């Protein structure tokens, strides 16, 4: 029987600008043509309507595997992702059957370690809800996956993500925990930290200038 | 001096309500100005994640709602007090919604702290961070995540100090008082 997988996406950005969406696509690539039924929900507006909340609970109920893919905002998942987890846990009596939970946490810092607290929160959610925790990937340099896609693809830097995604998909198929190899693959930076921060700042300056902003160190609340 | 309280607790959270009363009373007696934001009564929009508060309108969120007042208050406050139900070891969605709107306090520029890359602060402010969480019962993992989170937040906010305290729903008023007293003593405030 096909395994039903629900992607729960935490980024409020449109797909073209979202590292979460980029990573989700990489996972989907490895799941297509295999025994999976796939569904995806963006959690960004989950707190806003009862209809969305109902849809979330129905989808959680009808799928076997939940995969959170989300950015980290100040050390934890965004509020909308926490809201979704709160809703699921509060309405656990409406959720049918066992579930497996995995998470991919993405941060804008070069080091993957900034995701560790978030991953512990996802695991705690799984434990509290009585679900099976499969494990999580911590990924740094989030914006690099979106804004430097062509360059990084051309020089093969995404091979690591594809390998990790393939290992995760295999683990889900076999109902195993995410292997250490996949976790370790994603912990390594794509590019040296110093280069990453320099490129990030230069890109930010270029974007700001485009909007006519020349000094983004303003302190408006002191004036 | 000034203290900002972000109350992200639920309206039926008796332990957290007692905690808030003791904190308000203690800061008031110490002669500090207090600004309280009861988040469940406020309509705080979720962060849209575009960092326009860095690149388009530096220091100001492009969403015009109460979170702008929270950021302004944070800039002027020496003590940041967060109140929350502990949710999977972290903060409630209610509190997190307000915290997610705080990037205007940071700059896109980077700095290294303890060997890790973090953002620089926009303002030369190093507030004391005090976070009080409520839980139904003890759970070592949940408590450890909570402490770790407060510690990690204090690095990202360049806080002068970071204190976390957990009250339980079945704590007596005396126990809550003792816990709050102990936490506040860490920033030399008498409860």
Topology (SSEs and partners):
The complex is a heterodimer of chains A (223) and B (191).
Chain A: E1 3-9, H1 19-31, E2 36-42, H2 50-62, E3 65-71, H3 79-90, E4 100-106, H4 116-129, E5 132-139, H5 142-147, H6 149-154, H7 159-174, H8 180-187, H9 193-210
Parallel strand pairs in A: 1-2, 1-3, 3-4, 4-5
Helix pairs in contact in A: 1-7, 7-8
Chain B: E1 2-8, H1 14-29, E2 33-38, H2 52-55, H3 66-76, E3 79-85, H4 93-99, E4 106-113, E5 116-121, E6 128-135, H5 140-156, E7 161-168, H6 173-185
Helix pairs in contact in B: 1-6
Assigned CATH architecture of chain A: 3-Layer(aba) Sandwich
Sheet/helix structural class of chain A: alpha/beta
Characterize the largest beta sheet of chain A: strand count, sense, and whether it forms a barrel: 5 strands, parallel
Tell me the name of the CATH homologous superfamily of chain A.
Answer: Flavodoxin domain
Query: What kind of oligomer do you see?
Result: heterodimer
Overall geometry of chain A comes to globular
pLDDT average of chain A, as an integer? 93
Strand order of the largest sheet of chain A: 2-1-3-4-5
Strands of the largest sheet of chain B, in order across it? 2-1-3-6-7
Characterise the protein shown here.
The complex is a heterodimer of chains A (223) and B (191). In chain A, 48% of the residues lie in helices and 16% in strands. By secondary structure, chain A is an alpha/beta fold. Chain A has one domain (3-191): 3-Layer(aba) Sandwich (Rossmann fold). Chain B has helices at 14-29, 52-55, 66-76, 93-99, 140-156, 173-185; strands at 2-8, 33-38, 79-85, 106-113, 116-121, 128-135, 161-168. Chain B contains six helices and seven strands; from the N terminus they run βαβααβαβββαβα. Chain B has one domain: 3-Layer(aba) Sandwich (Rossmann fold). The chains are: A alpha/beta (223), B alpha/beta (191).
Short description:
The complex is a heterodimer of chains A (223) and B (191). Chain A has 9 helices and 5 strands.
Supply the key terms.
heterodimer; A: 223 residues; alpha/beta; Rossmann fold; five-stranded parallel β-sheet; 5 strands; 48% helix; globular; B: 191 residues; 6 helices; 7 strands
């Amino acid at each position: 029987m096909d395994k039903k997988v629900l992607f729960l996406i935490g980024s409020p950005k449109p797909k073209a600008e979202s590292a979460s969406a980029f990573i989700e696509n990489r996972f989907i690539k490895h799941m297509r043509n295999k025994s999976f039924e796939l569904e995806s929900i963006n959690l960004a507006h989950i707190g806003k309507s009862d209809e969305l909340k109902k849809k979330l609970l129905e989808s959680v109920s009808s799928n076997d595997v939940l995969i959170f893919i989300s950015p980290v905002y100040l050390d934890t998942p965004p509020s909308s992702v926490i809201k979704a987890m709160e809703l699921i846990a509060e309405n656990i009596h409406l959720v049918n059957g066992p579930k497996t939970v995995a998470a991919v946490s993405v941060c804008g810092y070069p080091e993957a370690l900034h995701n560790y607290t978030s991953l512990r929160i996802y695991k705690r959610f799984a434990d509290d809800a009585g679900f099976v925790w499969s494990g999580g990937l911590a990924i740094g340099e989030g914006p690099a996956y979106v804004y430097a896609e062509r360059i990084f693809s051309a020089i093969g830097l995404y091979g690591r993500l594809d390998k990790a995604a393939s290992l995760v998909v295999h683990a889900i198929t076999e109902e195993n925990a995410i292997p250490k190899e996949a976790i370790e693959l994603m912990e390594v930076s794509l590019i040296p930290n110093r280069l990453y921060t320099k490129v990030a700042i230069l890109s930010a300056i270029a974007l700001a200038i485009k909007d006519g902003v020349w000094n983004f160190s303003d302190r408006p609340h002191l004036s | 001096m000034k203290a900002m309280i972000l109350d992200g607790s639920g309206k039926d959270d008796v332990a957290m309500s007692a905690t808030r009363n003791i904190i308000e009373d203690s800061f008031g007696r110490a002669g500090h100005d207090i600004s309280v934001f009861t988040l469940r009564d406020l309509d705080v929009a979720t962060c849209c994640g575009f960092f326009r508060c860095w690149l388009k309108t530096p220091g100001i969120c492009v969403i015009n709602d109460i979170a702008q007042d929270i950021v302004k208050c944070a800039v002027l406050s020496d003590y940041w007090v967060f109140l929350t139900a502990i949710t999977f070891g972290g903060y409630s969605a209610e509190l997190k919604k307000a915290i997610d709107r705080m990037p205007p306090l940071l700059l896109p520029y980077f700095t290294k702290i303890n060997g890790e890359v973090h953002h620089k602060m926009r303002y030369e402010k190093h507030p004391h961070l005090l976070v009080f969480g409520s839980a139904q019962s003890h759970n070592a993992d949940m408590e450890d995540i909570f402490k770790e989170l407060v510690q990690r937040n204090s690095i990202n906010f360049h806080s002068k100090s970071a204190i976390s305290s957990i009250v339980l729903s079945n704590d007596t008023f005396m126990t809550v008082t003792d816990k709050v007293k102990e936490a506040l003593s860490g920033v030399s405030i008498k409860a």
